[in-house]
Protein: alanine transaminase
Amino acid sequence: SDSDVIGSRPSVEKYGQMRFLTAEAKVSAGRLNGKMREKTLTMDTLNPQVKAVEYAVRGPIVIKAGEIEKYLEEGGTKPFSEVIKANIGDAHAMGQQPITFLRQVVALCTFPELMDSPSFPEDAKWRAQRILQGCGGHSLGSYSASPGVECIRKDIAAYIEQRDEGVPSDWENIYLTTGASDGIMTILRLLVSGKDSSRTGVMIPIPQYPLYSAAISEMDAVQVNYYLDEDNCWALDINELYRAYQAAKLHCQPRVICIINPGNPTGQVQSKKCIEEVLHFAYEENLFVMSDEVYQDNVYTPDCQFHSFKKVLYEMGPEYFNSVELASFHSSSKGYMGECGFRGGYMEVINMDPEVKAQLVKLLSVRLCPPLAGQAAMDVIVNPPQSDEHSYKQFHQEKSSVLGALADKAKLTEQILNAVPGIKCNPVQGAMYAFPRIFIPPKAVEEAKALGMQPDMFYCLRLLEETGICVVPGSGFGQKDGTHHFRMTILPSIEKLKVLLGKVRDFHISFLKEYSALE
Structure:
């Protein structure tokens, strides 16, 4: 009867409670059925591809810098008063001010009540209203279509056409991404397949940005290195591409070539002739081309110019333009904007097989959509104030000021580093980094090896512990055997950059003296 069931409840509950309490007691004693319970996920059961991933710009040296920063905050003493992080291209963290117009539009999109405020210019309000009309429920809090908000994709296509002086761009080939990294990972996922000698080979420049090597490790693809020519300002040599390709074909199937232009960490800007050669090579060898163009606004040397791979491909004629598969990437994180935290970016993908394109859309839909605030930021970048608009003057002033300061800092960095014995720095033609070659004396190399670390890691750790300067060892980016480098950003303010470079100079000289290599 009902009363029996009701009456039996406390004992059932009590029994469950007792079982739970005894189980809890056993677990807290660390034992269950008389044996220690082991964790399911251990270093032995962890996905081995995850273990293989390395990402130098946020690696052990940066963790150490964080520990030192904490130690100083808690009142600890060091021979320096602050840690200067020159390890990552994070402009705002280094004190760069946001572009006013970009923030105004994103603020209006985020909090539309501000549309009534007289503090916001009409050209910003008009853009924000247009973006919100493209969002579900007119809110930045809604999901967008997986490839991105349609009006933003159309703005990006218009921007590309204008940038490339009339080369057609179809908005349906544009996909918004969560920073450029997300797009790069997505395209690589489509490309990696096969087993053993038919496994996908991915050709990447050395030195490279470690996203590429990390993605290749994670996907268990084959990394195919082609070396940039340091003695020739990190130029890309076509003969080196053929050498790397032929050597790789013996053990994998190279299917894709990645290019970073302007270069990271190397700062070179590729010539049009060089790009033509790369595209011809890709056409001949049937390679998919991935062009990482996130630094396209960052060109400092007067006799260098940014050429997009797509524009050069178009100028090579229809046979090339209608057949070479090309994905180009851009981002809100670099350029003059430096809006890393918004995770805004896009890719344009041309000549992709229509059935594969459907698979790409499917893959993008799994991650739903990129952040809407990042999409809005990207829209302002491709649709900035025009000369007849109220905000044009201030926008243009801020943009020129950021890029002008970066050009000055690029020159300053190169000059100061080249004046130091045992350091050689190529011109920083573009991007945001210097990648100087450093001479490390044989005695220091031996000491590093005895400690089980790369010589440039040893050098950078010593630099950090003695000066508070955090840079990334060249070994994290790849370099020719027997050469040593470090990567540093040119983003700190000019005053801080001078201090940083002065400390590097003094440290390097005392390091050479210590290991008796200074004649």
Q: What stands out?
A: The domain at 52-94+394-516 is CATH 3.90.1150.10 (Aspartate Aminotransferase, domain 1). The chain has a mean pLDDT of 91. The CA atoms of residues 108 and 114 lie 6 Å apart.
